Amino acid sequence: MAATKKAVLGPLVGAVDQGTSSTRFLVFNSKTAELLSHHQVEIKQEFPREGWVEQDPKEILMSVYECIEKTCEKLEQLNIDISNIKAIGVSNQRETTVVWDKITGEPLYNAVVWLDLRTQSTVENLSKRIPGNNNFVKSKTGLPLSTYFSAVKVRWLLDNVRNVQKAVEEDRALFGTIDSWLIWCLTGGTNGGVHCTDVTNASRTMLFNIHSLEWDKELCEFFEIPMKILPNVRSSSEIYGLMKAGALEGVPISGCLGDQSAALVGQMCFRDGQAKNTYGTGCFLLCNTGRKCVFSEHGLLTTVAYKLGRDKPVYYALEGSVAIAGAVIRWLRDNLGIINSSDEIEKLAKEVGTSYGCYFVPAFSGLYAPYWEPSARGIICGLTQFTNKCHIAFAALEAVCFQTREILDAMNRDCGIPLSHLQVDGGMTNNKILMQLQADILYIPVVKPSMPETTALGAAMAAGAAEGVGVWSLEPEDLSAVTMERFEPQINAEESEIRYSTWKKAVMKSMGWVTTESSESGDPSIFCSLPLGFFIMSSMVMLIGARYISGNA
């Protein structure tokens, strides 16, 4: 019997999208930007102490291999020849820190995730050494001194993990964010693996000078981090090395972007003033500021947006970062058990259509932009005996929208020209109630692409456009038109402002809940002093009571 003829689709490009909650591998047609197939694997998060968030680097790596293999199997079932995959791009959760042994290839400690708070005392001690009239850390990096970024995580590992200390002393240690770890492993690991990162990921370490585009000696000395462990910094679009194993062995890895920069590229925000908001584990609003660094006066970060080729110019962005967005849905599922799957949140919220005066501030890792307040913790307030799990679900979705409103307001003040609409992407944008709420709370239209996988698309575009690959044109006239879904505000401006001002009252009440000592002690008893600690206990009573009051528990 004759073999089935494979479909001819022209050059294809794959993208690894390694996020905080899951890993995916997606394959796109480089001529049409059509998504052909993908596979996803959820990633475990470990919480060994209060405020600590870790992941297993080897689990992350194996999830990438699994996603690649499964996606290739699906393409074969579709009669699509995987030999047409000409390049692979990598997009990753940023700031998350890995230190590994270059001789054995083994991680020396778990990955310390960007949400982790263990370094708060390190941050406070370091801040005392920065002159008030010369914040050289922020002027060089565009970042505030915060637990969020990689440098303080590396400093903690050097101070507290003997395996890391010993490996550095013996010149065996390599440091990298998740992109560096993956590229090193995928290109051979201990057998010639390439130790590199790109400018977007480097700009999130607090060790990288965003003006000179180099690791900064003064910053490395300030954080006492040896420069010999740092990866080589490359552009976001060039061939770094070849896949050394698996179904795609020999395919070049030629694109690398931190996830939020990848989404900016995938949304085709290539012009000064274009912006996008991504709804993932956190929520991240980026505005392209062109070839100039714009420093915020309203709590936003200045960061590298992309550099799409070794000889191409660097572009910058202003960023508003929200720590908890999709993570609040996962918390409702895993910690409170009021939903069995993340998709159920929309159904619960739809049942009531209101939070009934309940407000949720999910400051599980403190507050990021525009407050940068590490002492904040999550609160749910405005509860009555009528409140049930549906109202809490609705309040959780509203919280994501209110946090976006805060960073959008800051962005508008910094840029001087308010956005006329908001381009959105990310997994949460499939929730239509969330998108309508967002339009209502911002009081501007929200515009969503019909293919929401813009983070992976951006990584694929960078990979396909790389010199030596050249299968994806980034010229404006060659970019595929994208079908959009539009959500218009459906409430009046006065109601929108009242809800927003009440939210801001709740935010103020979330601050000042923990001290440095309690946040780092790891003593489980401190959780009972937090408002959500109390809420977890009292909510059980509330939900049982709600069964009799409203029948919705």
UniProtKB/TrEMBL annotation:
Gene Ontology MF, one: ATP binding
Q: What is its main location?
A: cytoplasm
Q: In which pathway does it act?
A: Polyol metabolism; glycerol degradation via glycerol kinase pathway; sn-glycerol 3-phosphate from glycerol: step 1/1
Domain called Carbohydrate kinase FGGY C-terminal: residue spans: 276-466
The protein's matches in SUPFAM superfamilies, at most eight in alphabetical order, are given as: Actin-like ATPase domain (SSF53067)
* UniProt keyword ATP-binding present: yes
- Stated EC number for the protein is 2.7.1.30
Q: Which family does it belong to?
A: Belongs to the FGGY kinase family.
PANTHER family found in the cross-reference section: GLYCEROL KINASE, SUGAR KINASE
Q: What is this protein called?
A: glycerol kinase
Name the species this protein comes from. Molossus molossus (Pallas' mastiff bat)
